Amino acid sequence: MGWFENGWGLSLIVFLPLVGAAVLLAVPRARETAIKAIALGFAAASFAVSVIVTILFDFGTAGYQFGTNKSWIPAIGSYFHVGVDGISLPLVVLSTFITLLCVIYSWNHWPEPHNPKAFLVLMLILATGMAGTFVALDLVLFFIFFELVLLPMYFMIGIWGDRNPMRLPGFRKPVETRLYAAIKFFLFTLFGSAFMLLGFLALYFRSGDAAGAGRTFDIEALSALGAEGHFSGTFAFWVFFALFLGFAVKVPMWPLHTWLPDAHTAAPTVGSVLLAAILLKLGSYGFIRIALPILPHEAQRWAPAIAILAVIAIIYGSLACLAQTDMKRLIAFSSVGHMGFVMLGISTLTDVGINAAIVGMVAHGVITGLLFFLAGSIQHRYHTREMARLGGNQKTLPILGGILGFAAMASLGLPGLAGFWGEFMALLAAYNPFAGASLALFRTAMVIGAIGTVLTAGYLLWMLQRVNLGEVPEEWRDKSFHDADRFELGAWVPLVLATLAVGVYPAIVFGATNDSVVDLVQRAFGG
Amino acid sequence: MTINQFLILGSLLFSLGVYGVLVRRNAVAVLLSIELMLAAVNINLVAFGSLLGDTLRTGHIFALFVITVAAAEVGIGLAIVILIFRNRASANVDELDLMKW
Amino acid sequence: MLSFAAWSAAEGGHAGAAGEPSGFLGVLAQGAWLIPVVPLLAVGLIVLFGKRLPLKGWELAEGALVFVGLYGAALLIGNWVDPFAFERHVEIARIGVLPGGHDLVLEWGWVVDGLSTMMYFVVGVVGSFVFTYAKGYMKGDVRFTWFFAAFSLFAGGMLVLVSSPNTIQLIVGWELVGVASYLLIGHWWEDHANNAAAIKAFLVNKVADVGLFIGVIISGLVVGSFRFTDLLDAVEAGDSALADVGVWVGLALFIGAMGKSAQWPFHVWLPDAMAGPTPVSSLMHAATMVTAGVYLLGRMFPFYQAEGFGAGLKPLILVIGALTLFLGGLLALVQDDIKKVLAYSTVSQLGYMTAAMGAGAYTAGLFHLFTHAFFKGLLFLAAGSVIHAVHSNNMSDMGGLRKAMPKTYWTFLIGSLALAGIVPLAGFWSKDEILASLAYDGQHGGGGLATFVLVLALAGAFVTAFYMARTVNLTFFGKYKGQAHLHESPRVMTYPLIGLAALAAVGGLVNMPGWFTAFTSWLAARAHPIVEHHASGLNWGLAALGTLAALAGIAAGTALFGRDRATQRERDRFRIPVLYPLLEHKYYLDDLYDYGLVRPIRGPLARAANWSNNVIIDGAVNAFGVVARRLASLVYGGFDQRGIDLGINAAAAAAGEAGGALRRVQTGKVQQYAAALFLGAVALVVGFLIFT
Fold this sequence. Notes:
Distance between the termini of chain A: 35 Å
Mean pLDDT of chain C: 84
Number of helices of chain A: 21
Radius of gyration of chain C: 31 Å
Largest interface: A-C, 65 and 62 residues
Number of domains of chain C: 1
Number of strands of chain A: 4
Order of helices and strands of chain C: HHHHEEHHHHHHHHHHHHHHHHHHHHH
Helix content of chain A: over 70%
Largest sheet of chain A: 2 strands, antiparallel
Oligomer: heterotrimer
C-alpha cells in the first residue's frame, strides 16, 4: 500500500479525529447517541490505523517509516514532514489507545454542564494535537501540534472542571478552582513554549550558512547538523536553555511543576486522564526527539543538572504526596515523582537510559491514566476527593476497589507490572551514564532514586489504607453505590491488561524502541 | 509684507484655537476653536501659496478644500452637540466620559 | 513484532558440577516452568471463578500446591538418583549496548538444581498442609475466596523467586511475595491496625530492597549479564572488574537478604506481621517467605566464599546472624501472645541460618531452613488451633488445654521439641550441624568470632528450649483461664498438624553426618561446585552440649512455668508467685534458678533487649514515618505552596496591579485625549528638529 506508507497512514491517524470533530460540529446537540457513536467511530478508526501501522512497521530498522516530506510553507522553509520510528511508535499507539478508552468511559459519564457534543469535539481536537506532536518531524509543525493541545485542555478544565472555590495566598477573593487551574495551566505551559519557539527560530537561522541559504526547520536535517557540532558555544547553551524551559514545564520537571496538581484536581476525569497519560509525555518526548539529537554536546553539559532535578522530583514528589488530603492531588504529585524517573533515564544519555525513559513513559501513561479514571469515578460517586472522608471503599465498591489496589501496586513499581521496568531500568542506567559523566553524581542519584521507591510505596499504600480499607465511614453506610459499570470496565480492563502485558513481556515496548534509540545515541554521541 | 507676519498671525490664531479645544468646557466653544484652528491653517496655506506663486495655485486650492471640509464638519458637529444637549440638558464636554475605564 | 521466536529460542543449561538430566527426569526438568506458573494461574482463576466453585476456590489453590509438592518431590527423588543442574531462559527484551559490547538482555527462566528443588519441595509440601489447615481455619471468613487467591499469589511468587536463574527475576519473585505478604497480613483490613502492620512489613522490606536493587544493578552491569550462572562464572574466573565492586555487591545483596529474613535490625516487622491469619504466619513468616534471604545467600554461596569477592563480608554476616539469634531468642521470653513467642523464635532461628552462612556452612544453614519449615510451620498451625478454640492470642487466657485438645497438644509438643533440638527430631540434626560448622569455622578462618558465635548459639539453644517450655506449659498445662468452650479442632486442621509433626520428627534423618547424608548431596547438585567442609561424623561433644543446653532450657522452663501461677502478668517483671507451703522445697530450688540464673537473663537482660527493640529500633522506624509526614507537610505547605507557588501568583498579581494602575489613563474625556495627542505631536516635532 504505497499511499499508506508514504505519509497517508500517519496523516490518517493524526487528522481522522479532527475530521471527526468537524463532522460532530454539524450534528445537532440534542442527538446525543449519534454524537457519541460518531466520536467513538473516529477514535476507534484512528486507533485501528495506528495498530495497522504497528503491524506493518519494520522492527529492526532505525529510520523513520511511513513518512512523507511535502512542501508546506515555502516562505519560511517549513515542510509537512511526518514520520514514525521506534521511539514515537509506542507513544502514538498510546495516545490513540487512551483517547479511545476516554471516549468509551465518557459514554455515560458526563461532567457538568452536560454537553457531550462540545466535550467530544474538544477531545477529538486534543487527539489530533497529541498524535501530531509525536509524528511531526519539522519544528514548525511540531510547534503547532504542541500548542494545539493547550486550547482543548484549557476549555475542558475551564468549563467542566471543579467548581469549588479555593483560597490562595496572595489572592484577595476565593477563586473557582477550574478557572484558576485552567489559566495557570495555559499560561505556564505557554510561557515555556514561548522560549521553546525562540529556540526553534534560533536553530533555524543558525542552520544555514552565512548567506542564509540552506536554512531548515527539519528535525532530521538539524539532527545531522547537530551531530557534526554545527551548533556550539554560548549559542548552543542559550538555545538548549530555551528548549529546556519549554519541555521541562510540560514534563513537568521540578521546580516548574506547580501547574500540574492544580490542573489535575480541577480537570474533569477524562481531562485528567488525557493530561497525565499523554500530555505529560510531550515534554520528555521533546527532549528525546529534539533537544538531545540537535544539541548533543550541550545535552552532555546539562545532563548532571537534569539528573539532580530528576532526583529532587522523585523525592520531593513522594514527600508531597504524603502530605496530601485530596486523592487526585496525591496522584498528581505521584506523576511528578514518576516523571522524575523518566528524566533520570534521559539524563544518562545512554541507550539503556532512554529506553528506560520510553518504557517509563508508556507505563506511566497506562497506570496513572487508570489511577485518574478510578479517582474520577470515586469522586463521581462520593462527591468528594478528601481521603479523610473516604474509607472502606473495598467493601462498598469491591470491583472498583480491587482495580484501585491493582493500580496502586502497579504505580509503586511492582515487578511483573509495567511500572517496574521504567523505574528499575532508569536506576540501572544511572549506574553507567555517558562517557565523561560524573560517576559519583549519577550513582548517588541512583541510590537516592532507589530510596525514592520506598517513599513511593509508602504513600501509595497509605492512600490505599485511607480510601480502600477500614470500616465504611458513617456518612456512606446507608447510601447505595453502583459498582463499576460496563463502560468504566470497558475503559479500565484494557489498561489492566496492558499493564500486565508490558510488565510480563517488556519487549512489547523495547522491541520497538531499542533499534531507534541505539541509532539516536550513536548518531548524536558517537556511539 | 514679509511672509513672517502672516505666519505669526497664523500661529497666534492656531494657538488660540488649540487653547480653546483643550480647555473650553462648552462643546460649541470647542467647535468654535476648531474653526479658529482651521482658519489659521487657511491663512498659512494662502500665505505660502502667494509666496511660492506656482501655476497650480496649490495653496489657494487647498484652502478652499479646507473651508469646504470645515463647513461640513461644523454642520455635523453642531448637529451632534444639539442632540447631546437635548438628551442631557448640558453641553459640558467634561460630562461626556462614557468611555471611561 | 512479538517475536514468538524468542519463546522457543531458549538457551541451554550450564555444565558444571552437576550435569544435565536425561530421560524422564529431563522431561520433568523441562516442564518445571509449570511450578511457579500453576499457582499464578490459580490466582487468576480463583479471582474470576472462585466464588462459584463448590469449595469457594480452595480446590484450585490446594490443587496448585499439591501439584507443586508432588512435582518437587519427584524432582527431589530424581536428584537423589541422578544429581543434575538444569536451567532454561526465554528472552523477553533486548536493550541497548552495554560497555563491553553485549546487549542487556531481560529473560524469564527456571532453574532446576539441588537448591531450588529443595525449595520447591518445602513450599509445595508445607504449603499443601497449610492450605488444607487454612480451609478449616478460615471457614466462614469474610473474604475466604480472596484469601486463597492471595495465598496462591504468594506461593507463585515464592516459586518464581526460588526458580529464577537471574537476579531480575529474583527481584520479581521477591517483590511478589512482599505484596502477597502485605495482602495477607492485612487480610482483616477492617481494622486499621492490621493494615498498619502490613504496611510496616512491606516498607521495612522495601528499605532493605534498596540494597537488593543496587546489588543486582551493579553486579549485572559489571558482569554484563544478570544470570546467576554468569555471575558465578565470573567469580570462578576471578574477574577483576567484579572483584573491584565485590564488597559493595555482597554488602548490598546481604542488606536485601536481611530485610526479607528479618535479621537484626530489620526484624521489627516480623512480630507485627502476626496480625495476619495464622496460616499466613505459618507458611510465609516461618516456613518460606522469610527464608528468601537465606536462599539468596545460598544461591550466591560461591560468591560469598571467594576471596576478594564476598568473602570479606563473612564476619559481618556472622555477627548479624549471632545478634539476631540471641536477641531474638531473649525477646521470646517476655511475650504473652503465643504467636509473638513463635515470631521471635523464627527471628532467632533465621539468625542461626544466617550465622551458618556466615561461617561458610552451605548445607547446615539450608538444612536448618528445611527442618525449620516443618517444625515452625507446625508450631504456628498448632498455635492457630489453640487460638481458634480459645479466641485469644494471649497465653494468660489459656492453660490446661492439653486435655481438651490432645492432637493439638501432642503436635505442638513435637514441634517444640524439634525446635529445641531434641534427638532424634529434625531440629536436633540441623542445629547440631550449624554448631559443628561454627566450631569448624572457628578453627579455620572464622577465628575467635566464629567461636564466640558458637557460644552464643549454644546459649541460644538454651533460651530456645526455655521459652518453648514456657509456652507449652502456659498453654497446655495448668488451669484454663478463659471463658471459651474448648474443643479440639476439626480434622481438616488436625490432619495437617499430624502430617507436619511426622515431618518434624523424621525430617532430620535425611542428613545425619557419617551415616546418611542424602540432603548434602541433594543441595550440592548445582552448576557451580560448593566448597565447604563436610563433617565425617556427628560431633558428639557439640551434640551433647547442644542437647544439654536444650534439656536445661526445657527443665528451667518447665520448672518455672509448669505450675499454674494464679497471677500471671509478665509485662515488666517476672513476678514471684504465691508460695505454696507444700512446695517450699521446690521453691528453694526455684529461688536458686530464679535469682541465680533466670532473673539475670530474663530480668535485666531480656528487658533491655525488649526495650531497645521497642523504643530504639521500632521507635526509629516509626519516627521515620512521622518525620516523613511532618517534612512532607513542611515542604508542601511551607515551601511549595508559600514559596514557589507564591512567586507564580505574585507575578500574576503584579500584572493585575500594573494593569489597574495604567487603566486610569482612560478617562473618557476627549479633551484629555486631544491634549495627549497634541503634546505627543509637539514632542515628535521637537525631537525631529533636534535629532536631524
